[in-house]
């Protein structure tokens, strides 16, 4: 089974939210729950990454409340998304998980470890930074600028937001966008414009919020980013996140941006499998 063929599943939480999710790999051991980026649904995970992790792990992807196939309304804070994530995990009956948080998902992952430290065993935080990090509150202006550029050039906005504009970055962007189109059947529902804007404002508020005491996070964490992330600036955010966590490792990919794990998917899978 490959991710592009994974079944769309649904589960109803006690608060009435019905979550859409997919799972892959043998259902043993501690599962990896993947926390997605701004505007993303189930189809936005790089299938190379999910398939690579599923060879050795049970991995679960899901839509946040109000996104894609999940019902309800998008929470208006990152902390609310962490509560939403905990609700999904507990609804599945899971007592302990590893997490893979990419971009906004890495922010959600940090808040989840503060909210429910007993729930998370290990975490990978990719393309993200700490609460109150430099430049994070500029997300709306940045996203609007890059979206306009994408519309004018008839390209997917992730081309500009996730990848460098070098030859390597451009070819990696094209390959990634094509991988996201491989699944033809039972595709997920695109996020609505109001829900997307709600997520944007939640990230802006998180960037303006007081810094968290990350030293309280004792779980092993792998921090990953490219050396030229324009969405969550690598310097100082990625290095700051690594330094403030009590038990973390750091990977910085050269000539890579926000979507460095997709640009370096094979290498990333190897490192992630070693870490988990």
From TrEMBL:
PANTHER family in alphabetical order: AB HYDROLASE-1 DOMAIN-CONTAINING PROTEIN, HYDROLASE, ALPHA/BETA FOLD FAMILY PROTEIN
Domain (AB hydrolase-1): residue spans on this chain: 38-260
Protein name: Alpha/beta hydrolase
Organism domain of life: Bacteria
Lineage: Bacteria, Bacillati, Bacillota, Bacilli, Lactobacillales
Coiled coil: none
InterPro entries on file: AB_hydrolase, AB_hydrolase_1, AB_hydrolase_fold
Keyword set, alphabetical order: Hydrolase
One Gene Ontology MF term: hydrolase activity
